[in-house]
């Protein structure tokens, strides 16, 4: 396929922003695939901080990381991403190259435990603050589950209101995908802001 899928495109954008030896955040660890991707991208001298509210997800992620990125320095935090700023030490504030959000519920887990519009918005706001100039936030939003459409709209509203002089923003979607299309939003902090 020529046109990248939503997840491929999210990885491409995050991959362009992270630097070897840099800092990255996985705001929704889930099964750990994005965490492992970020860990490989920052390499053994870099660091990744991951958040999830479910211990089950963090346990899955630990296994995934052992198999896919054993050398990486990853800290998994059992807390909501809305507490992100509190869990990043001072040296990392303003230095994060990529922050990935993959919203909704844990695949293979309890579908009633989902990310929520208000805490997602708080986490996005905190993310924009800890991002380094040239860094990117990617957010994949799903619209098929209960509350998913409202959450995608909340993300779109937040992204759309960002000041153009400080952030570049992108919305990526498949317009002829008829049932509950996922959306990707990306936000880049301008270097010259
Ligand atoms: N990126 C993952 C999938 C993420 S699924 C992968 O590639 O496998 C979404 C995850 O968000 C779930 O595991 C859910 O527990 C978690 N979640 C829900 N609310 C959250 C919150 N407030 N902060 C952080 N994670 C949350």
Task: Sum this structure up briefly.
This protein is of the alpha/beta class and 193 residues long. It is built from 5 helices and 7 strands.
Description of the structure:
This protein has helices at residues 6-17, 33-42, 55-68, 117-130, 148-160; strands at 23-26, 47-52, 73-78, 96-102, 131-141, 167-172, 183-189. The protein has 193 residues and is an alpha/beta fold. It has one domain (6-189): Rossmann fold (3-Layer(aba) Sandwich), CATH 3.40.50.150. Strands 3-2-1-4-5-7-6 form a 7-stranded mixed β-sheet. The longest helix has 14 residues, at 55-68. The N and C termini lie far apart (36 Å). The model has no long low-confidence stretch (mean pLDDT 97). Residues 28, 30-31, 33-34, 51-54, 57, 80-82, 102, 104, 106, 113, 115, 119 line the site of S-adenosyl-L-homocysteine. S-adenosyl-L-homocysteine binds next to α2 and β2.
């Amino acid at each position: 396929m020529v046109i990248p899928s939503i997840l491929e495109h999210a990885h491409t954008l995050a991959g362009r922003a992270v630097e070897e030896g840099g800092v990255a955040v996985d705001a929704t660890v889930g099964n750990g695939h994005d965490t492992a991707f970020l860990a490989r991208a920052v390499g053994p001298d870099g660091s990744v901080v991951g958040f999830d509210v479910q211990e089950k997800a963090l346990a899955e992620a630990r296994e995934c990381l052992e198999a896919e990125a054993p050398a990486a320095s990853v800290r998994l935090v059992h807390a909501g991403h809305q507490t992100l700023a509190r869990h990043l030490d001072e040296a990392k504030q303003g230095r994060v190259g990529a922050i990935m959000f993959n919203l909704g519920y844990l695949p293979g887990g309890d579908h009633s435990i989902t990310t929520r519009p208000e805490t997602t918005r708080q986490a996005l706001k905190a993310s924009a603050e800890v991002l380094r100039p040239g860094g990117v936030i990617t957010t994949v939003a799903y619209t098929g589950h209960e509350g998913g459409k409202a959450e995608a709209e909340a993300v779109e509203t937040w992204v759309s209101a960002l000041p153009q002089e400080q952030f570049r923003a992108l919305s990526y979607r498949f317009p002829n995908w008829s049932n509950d299309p996922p959306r990707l939003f990306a936000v880049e902090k301008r270097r010259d802001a």
